[in-house]
Amino acid sequence: MLTSAAAALGVGGFSNQLNLPESSITVVILADGLGDQNLAGHTGHARFLSRPWRSAQQGRSLDTGAPTTTAASLTSLGTGLTPGEHGMVGYDVFAPHLGRVVNMLGSWDAEVDPISWQPEPTVLGAAEASGTEVLTVSRPQFRDSPLTRAALRGGQFAGSSTIAGRFGLAADWIAGHRPRTATLRRGPMPKLLVYLYIDELDKTGHNLGVGSAKWVTMLENVDAAAAQFSRQLKERFGAQASVLLTADHGMINVAQQNRIDISERADLLRSVRHTGGEPRMVQLYTEPGAAEQVRSVWQQEFGDLVWAVTAEEALAAGWFGPVRAGVRPRIGDVLIAARQEAAIFHTDRTGTQPLSMVGQHGSLTEAERRVPLLELTGRGFAD
Q1: 190 vs 193: CA distance, rounded Å
Q2: Strands, E, within 41-168: which ranges?
Q3: For residue 86, is it within any domain?
Q4: CATH number of the domain residue 175 falls in
Q5: What DSSP letter does each residue of 222-251 carry, written as one string?
Q6: What pTM was estimated for this model as a whole?
Q7: What range does the record give for the signal peptide (predicted)?
Q8: Which pLDDT score, from 0 to 100, does residue 306 have?
Q9: Which range of residues forms the domain containing residue 350?
Q10: How many domains, the chain?
């Protein structure tokens, strides 16, 4: 997604595989948790976004890959690489050099250096090096977060705690680089690339569920802010500007009775050294030679509720894409991916708070993997 946006701006070294419209101002909005099915089920509350979503010229559906979790997907967005290449292979993953499971999102381990863990170049950094003006707009606390440094380093940063505030910052920054009045300058106007992050839908979905009253309100807020912003850019800059919206994953609701805690299940945890991943994509790090036995026990226990596979089977099926050698030990020896509306927790490791989460993601279902790609200024994708 972001590599195509950079290519559409004319940044060298990237391919416009998604045939995005060429522009000199490109804004990429990432609506965390807004899957294609989530939008499809609530188009009445997103009337602006639903128009390009229904249009073959302005709307497409993308596959985020696996696992469908923010740390993995945002790093794929930020680098143009698969989880197996960039190494952010889950929410909680095993760090071989520390011998323990570490978090890849809000509880990043102090002993894990973000740039050593994810050393691949970022698209934002490459765009900046090419002479493009680059801006990330997000929550203020994400300015120097480990995930930002690992996946989205490069360019300037502006922060606001509200959806409207973030769009306002982006609009002001663009206007500052493209003044209305004629001014004496040498050379062409700079190319502008803006990455704008919205996490309110994801947070609300986790807490209250997709489709809850507050979630719907958040969707309406995103829709209204995106509409005003896109219209302003279109009116002022015409075909120079392109505003794109996508997501990192979708989300499903899991009823309380389907949130399963395996902490007291010694039979399931036998020969398991560590648990990681997320509740809908559990990663089991087993004793040497025990992977197949553990896989079989979990498959017998959960049946059609899950896909239970060894790492070798998952890698052969391309779950993580190409996997570089240093990343392989971070991936669980057995992977338990939920097929139905269920989630599996190991609260002895995580605590009981995650059991309260209604909205979930991480697995391979269409609802979690498929996300929209929308062009919001009326410019169609190239054929």
Answers
A1: 10
A2: 59-63, 92-95, 100-103, 133-138, 156-159
A3: no
A4: 3.40.720.10
A5: HHHHHHHHHHHHHHHHGGGEEEEEE-S---
A6: 0.96
A7: none
A8: 98
A9: 256-356
A10: 2
